[in-house]
């Protein structure tokens, strides 16, 4: 059943919503002794006409105004190797490596700066600033 | 779509300074898409307005909300909750939304946070251009789909003025002359003969000069058995 277009127990299948939907986002199908109402979210303009015209006050339009989030994709994360802060996805890291033509160290901005200062202190001991602890 | 722009912050602050609790309400339609009045912009505005630097005394308390469309009175009446003790609503909708809220929640003051700028089309991400003025008597069928009302600085109907230079408008060299665009579009369509045809003077009454316009569409509502 639809997560967005929801009707309450007062729906009597009169099809006023189907006939008055300006976006053709509602349809019905009568098979054997059953009538099923269908809703297409990509067609739906959320204009509220169905809610307005329903003689049974059966349409709970709130689900078309506020609803839960749909998961789209789940990807593996790269985390800072020091503090474990989430940085970016493995796929993004691969894209970045391809564009930069160099591998990137998985470090958050704070630890990247700390590592840079350590490297400076190592290679240029006379010119480096003391490492700031943030 | 309707394109809106945030008012200067000082103007917004001066409009809310006397209230203690303000509902900042975004609109989920046109002004969300043009990145000026959606829920995200409402949250950003609330953060900015909460800065004590804008006020001599204490800033008002802010509550942020958003609704799909502010321009439909039955929708906002049924679904928009007004938090207790709200003194005013700061609406990020176009003028239609602000006035609809003001009617729906009278006598609660409803203040505009946006200026309603124009009807625009987006040609590239982040750019909206005025292409229609809602004149109520569309002439696009004989101007090659280019509106002389909205896109000519003088809304001329009989070809370019003397200020048209190399395809640009005299108002601004980066603004194309609408009549140059119309000419070259019609030429590509082999329809230059349309420029020779005679038309009645434009009737500006459907464009609002006869007072506010109302559109009534009959036959809406009711079930098939009614």
Q: How many angstroms separate the termini of chain B?
A: 36 Å
CATH superfamily of the largest domain in chain B: Response regulator
What is the CATH topology descriptor of the largest domain in chain B? Rossmann fold
User: How would you classify the helix and strand content of chain A by structural class?
Assistant: alpha+beta
Order of the strands making up the biggest sheet of chain A: 1-4
Terminus-to-terminus distance of chain A: 52 Å
Helix content of chain A: 25-40%
Oligomer category: heterodimer
Strand content of chain A: 15-25%
Mean of all residue-level pLDDT scores of chain B: 94
Put simply, the count of helices of chain A is: 5
Biggest sheet of chain A, open or closed, and with what strands and sense?
2 strands, antiparallel
Instruction: Name the CATH architecture of the largest domain in chain B.
Output: 3-Layer(aba) Sandwich
Secondary structure blueprint with pairings:
The complex is a heterodimer of chains A (134) and B (226).
Chain A: E1 6-7, H1 16-20, E2 26-31, E3 34-39, H2 49-53, E4 59-60, H3 62-65, E5 77-79, E6 86-89, H4 90-100, H5 109-123
Antiparallel strand pairs in A: 1-4, 2-3, 5-6
Chain B: E1 2-6, H1 9-16, E2 21-27, H2 30-33, H3 39-49, E3 61-67, H4 73-79, E4 88-91, H5 95-104, E5 110-112, E6 114-124, E7 127-132, H6 148-151, E8 168-169, E9 172-176, H7 178-188
Parallel strand pairs in B: 2-3, 2-4, 4-5
Antiparallel strand pairs in B: 1-6, 6-7, 8-9
Helix pairs in contact in B: 4-5
Keywords:
heterodimer; A: 134 residues; alpha+beta; Alpha-Beta Plaits; 2 domains; two-stranded antiparallel ribbon; two-stranded antiparallel sheet; 5 helices; 6 strands; B: 226 residues; alpha/beta; Rossmann fold; four-stranded parallel β-sheet; three-stranded antiparallel β-sheet; 7 helices; 24% helix; 22% strand
């Amino acid at each position: 059943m639809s997560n967005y277009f929801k009707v309450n127990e007062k729906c009597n299948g009169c099809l006023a919503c189907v006939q008055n939907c300006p976006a053709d986002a509602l349809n019905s199908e009568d098979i054997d002794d059953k009538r099923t109402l269908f809703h297409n979210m990509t067609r739906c303009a959320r204009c509220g006409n169905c809610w307005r015209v329903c003689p049974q006050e059966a349409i709970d339009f709130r689900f078309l105004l506020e609803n839960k989030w749909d998961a789209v994709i789940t990807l593996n994360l790269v985390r800072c190797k020091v503090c474990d802060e989430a940085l970016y996805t493995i796929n993004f890291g691969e894209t970045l490596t391809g564009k930069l033509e160099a591998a990137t160290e998985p470090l958050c901005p704070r630890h990247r700066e700390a590592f840079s200062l350590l490297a400076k202190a190592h290679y240029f001991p006379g010119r480096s600033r003391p490492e700031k602890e943030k | 779509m309707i394109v809106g722009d945030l008012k200067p912050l000082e103007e917004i602050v001066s409009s809310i300074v006397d209230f203690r609790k303000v509902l900042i309400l975004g609109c989920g339609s046109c002004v969300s898409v043009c990145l000026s009045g959606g829920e995200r912009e409402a949250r950003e505005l609330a953060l900015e307005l909460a800065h004590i630097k804008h006020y001599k005394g204490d800033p008002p308390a802010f509550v942020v909300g958003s609704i799909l469309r502010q321009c439909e009175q039955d929708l906002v009446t049924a679904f928009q909750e007004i938090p207790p003790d709200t003194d005013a609503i700061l609406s990020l909708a176009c003028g239609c939304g602000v006035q609809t809220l003001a009617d729906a929640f009278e006598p609660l003051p409803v203040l505009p946070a946006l200026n309603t700028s124009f009807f625009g089309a987006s040609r590239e991400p982040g750019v909206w251009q005025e292409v229609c003025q809602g004149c109520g008597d569309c002439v696009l069928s004989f101007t090659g789909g280019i509106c002389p009302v909205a896109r000519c600085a003088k809304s001329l109907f009989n070809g370019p003025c003397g200020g048209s230079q190399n395809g640009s408008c005299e108002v601004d060299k980066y603004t194309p002359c609408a009549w140059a665009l119309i000419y070259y579009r019609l030429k590509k369509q082999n329809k230059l003969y349309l420029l020779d045809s005679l038309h009645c003077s434009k009737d500006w009454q459907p464009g609002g000069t006869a007072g506010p316009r109302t559109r009534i569409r009959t036959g809406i509502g009711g079930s098939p058995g009614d």
